[in-house]
Amino acid sequence: MKSILLPTDFSKNSVNAIEFAVELFSNQVCDFYILNVQKASSFISDDMMAVSSSATIYRTIVDAAKKSIDNIISKVESQYKNERHNFHSLIDYDNFTDAINQVSEKHEIDLIIMGTKGASGLEKALFGSNTVRVIKRCSKPILAIPDGCRFSDLTKIVFATTNLKPFVINELKVLKEFVDDNNAELSIIHIADKNHSTYKTFDNSVLYDTYFEEAKHDYIDSVSNDMFDEIHDYNIANDAKMLIVKNKKHSFLGRLFSKHGLETLAFKIDIPFLVLPTTD
Asked: Which of 30-44, 158-172, 241-255 is least confident?
């Protein structure tokens, strides 16, 4: 049984990510934990100011959030009618990333699935920062679903790596599960930027040949520190359905999460984007 965490702010894109998750794991027994994280400061309005008791304010916020989650669950259960799936409603009153980490530990979460969305100005900057913060601070795999991306198939998966360290199979367990469960073609692209011949640094070929023996291997020598465009072009040329990277210190993922990378992550990647956690 899989335990999947689905954070939601009740926006269209977060609900889309929930529906994507339900379809993605349609053939597997799953516990889905739908989490909404609240902050008191977000709800101080003229109407709320009339309520004198902080306990009453808290109860009002929690009840409204729970009702919204229950509505999502009811709609999903009615639409998909999957007896393999169980849904749980969670409300937390905390820092967003702290709440995700606490829930992940308590419920032994296997995967977090989040929606991303387009925006502009300050909203874009805040959203990008929040997304990256979760990825950097969470010890679970995170699958980001672009706004409007509907589940169709995951028949072609791209794993982008710089091979800055030798891998063990446990670090790539989720990658292998996605490949096997979806009978997917796997392309491993070995990245080297203008400052590092990184795919020559460590030889992970034995691991790849043992566990991903049918994978296709390609090599990209980037002429700049910004490798996103080249990865993006590769995905388009190869009709990739999912991009997977390994989150580790000093990797090219950090450069993807530069000031420019924050925007590319949330607003230019138009296929599901899975980040495997660091084990450093």
From this structure: 241-255
